[in-house]
Design a protein that fits this description.
472 residues; Growth Hormone, Chain: A; 20 helices; mainly alpha; single chain
Amino acid sequence: MAVSTDTSTDTSPDTSPDTVGAPPTDRLVMGRGRWVSNWQSENEQFWNGPGRPAARRNLYWSVFCEFLGFAVWQLWSVTVVFLPGAGFDLTTSQQFWLVSLPPLVGAVLRVPYSFTVAIFGGRNWTVISALLLLIPTILLAITLANPGTPLWMLFAVAATAGFGGGNFASSMSNITFFFPAREKGAALGLNAAGGNVGVAVAQFLVPLAVTLLAFGTLQPNLSMAGLIWIPLILVAAWGAQRYMHNLSHAKNDLKGSLSALREPHLWLIAVIYVGTFGSFMGFGSVFPTLISMMFPDYSSIQLLGAAISMAFLGPLVGSLARPFGGRLADRRGGARVTIQCFIAMAAVTAAVVLTLPWQNFWLYLALFLVLFTLTGIANGSSYRMIPLVFRLTVDADDRVGHERKSSAALGLIGAVGGFGGFMIPQVLNASHSANGSFDAAFWSLCAAYVALAGFTFLVYHRPGSRLAAANV
């Protein structure tokens, strides 16, 4: 097998004092296609030598690629606000469907994306998944250049933005193989938070791009909502191809992914994750539309000729709160923090309904910022539960083992949780279509959060249970 070299690889004969026949720990054994065959993250000598810098390099490029995935996933959430003013004749229900389709498709794609690392290799699939983002961005630029674009085509193009949503599952599954157990939580938290920030950045940059780059016309240049991402996508694909690695032992872990699907706790935690991550994505998708409908004078703020949407603040605070949720769960227990967040989310959701008659935009914004912050904390705390639950519930004689199942579950649970990004906009759409208001939807979400708090308590925090005793 041919051996390739780069700045992180030493192909000189192994002179380390390792046991004869054991994998070397002073260098990466890397073959064609940047496949590493001696990755040993739990080996201190390897980790303190070539392991840590290589793992961090893979993490940084993974964060960048996932960041772009989330940004593309949420392009329609902010672009749809500009469509009526640009000549697109859309009903309120049709606008809600445009922001709902990307989360739905993204959630569906997360299931097959969870298996791609085991099939193609982490570095290889990161390159492919980055290049797939060119499809929704280019198509968006083409279709939104013409207000006469038929509705079915708008729906089809919006659905392709779901490619960005699938990236999370493969990215998280890949990164977990690079880090030792004691550092997995921090690495996964950074990877997830870096991706989530893409929602906020997209909702901030798109209004700027379509107004500042209108080139003297009175109408927003909606094509720029897609075009501005193309250079970044190409850089991400190049960086992943040049600097990331494939791990041979991860390629052979398809069995772990299939085995994880049979674990009951995968589906139980997935229900919780629908309420945490699903709420973040659902409200992130619909928040710009809610502001434009409820407070049209504040849908964008003019600054030096550019339109700035206040909606980006919600996903921003939610993304930044996610790592804090993981650290808080380390100290207090993931289930306890998640339960407290659900109760607080129910209270804030009720406050949104009760204060809406006051028509105070700044209070409305403040309540949503609190709600987004809670979803971020709950994202981190509920995700932290996964490896602990699998460690305690998978039998010691299980051939697959809890680590491999836990790694696979990270992506699969994220897939199920993504459906919340579709459900929340559609619940709000149904409420508005039936009653002309969103009150019924918010009260339903309030009740759902209370139910999820009770569910989490009964399964993972009930006094006397094994999981509660372990402070899951």
